[in-house]
Amino acid sequence: MTSLELKDVIGPAGLFLATIVTQLAAILLLSRSQQLAYRRFTSEKLWDLKRVAYSKILSKCAKSRDAYFSLLPLYAFPDLSDDDRKRIHEERGSKALSARDELYAVMADDYIVCSKQFLSEFNRTNNLFNFHGTREEYRKETNYEWAQRQYRAANDMHESLMKQARNELHLAD
Prior knowledge:
Elements: H1 6-69, H2 82-110, H3 116-126, H4 135-140, H5 143-169
Helix pairs in contact: 1-2, 1-5, 3-5
């Protein structure tokens, strides 16, 4: 007695079908592995883009916060004349607004890679810069009160966006 080989049991047509099925399974597995590799690649690339974008945004946010903070000590020096204080306030206030414009420019550049949650948090905290009172109350607001309000808004924005970025990028506090 001789041992039976696969071709003897299933015949030439069966062997042909087995070969086709094996090749199709290999093609499907290869295709699926390429899909998974591509998904992982794009996920990692998006993570890298977010990391760079969030770093730039948070850097500009901190610059804006620091520029507003530089206005606050102006009002601690009573020996400054009102003209000097006003001139310095306008110079530093202009730098602060310029820093905020830079932040908006970076946000516009990196808007596409930011998550919906990050953008929502940016919009929420950006609204803090606006005055939320009556027109009469706004007219009565002093330069010092304006500087305080702007600094608080910039600081809140920086802290909130930092927390959101850390959560998204899974970084430790």
